[in-house]
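Human: You know discrete backbone vocabularies at least as well as I do. Show me how you would write down a chain together with its backbone fold. No explanation is needed for now; the record alone will do.

Assistant:
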Amino acid sequence: MQNYWWLLAIGVSLLTSAYVYVNQFIKIKGSLLMVYRGLGTAAVLLPFVFIFSPIHNWSFYGLCIAQGLVISLGDNRILNGAKTFGAQVTSLIHPLSIAFIFVFWILLHPAEIAVFVNSPLHLGLVLACLLGTTVALIFILQAKASRKALSFLALGMFCEIFIDVTNKETTHLGAENLVSAIYYYTFITSLVAGSVNLAVHLRRGHKLLEVFDRKNLHFAWFFMLFAIIHGVLKTYAMYLTPNPAYVAAIVHAYPVWILLFNRFNHRQDYVKIKPQFILLLLISIVGLIFLTGHTH
């Protein structure tokens, strides 16, 4: 199963594209959406807390709480960035974070360097695949940004790096019982992120009753289901992968699925994609999958 992390990553990527695509039509406010994804998900998971054995490592819980806070900060930054600078700017965050995730993980785990020391060609090919994925996504998404926009979104990018690196780190800390670790990770991060987003939502002048609006609740189940399945699949993929950047490279390709769906669905607002960038993306991802299968 170790070499099949990429199947889970593709599943997460497709799931994320469905989540983003659906909200284009539902149009629930960002902060309210995060309340459902957070507190709603935590409420669904809470009754099962007695089924899962606790993780006997306080660092695990500390990282889960920290990640919940960072998720809130990152989401807020991305939402504000989209309003201020446009979607093309915020779409830069994910591609640019991929290489940094790779580097940060190795810096935190120097033993991983030994895997590449005796095979510089292998390292070069992995980096080429990560670079290829980044470049392909930037051109496919037609991402653009001014220096001012990049400085504003830098915090959002570092939040993405922290989230993915920490996600994998929690699977190491909770390796004594991976099933319980995945449950508590999803529950705690959802609870913390949802609580912060509810506070932000209310602070901006919105009423608490809006959270219980029948129109919004009618779709809330989808986002709660998404958060649970997303948390399980992504965390398990992170556990299996040698480096969290590999999962990020595939998951962050989710806008491409939306663009392709719009293209084949003959939507008038689809963005024209140059075939060479799709080919570069596919070659880079397939190459990454092949290379990581021969890492250990």
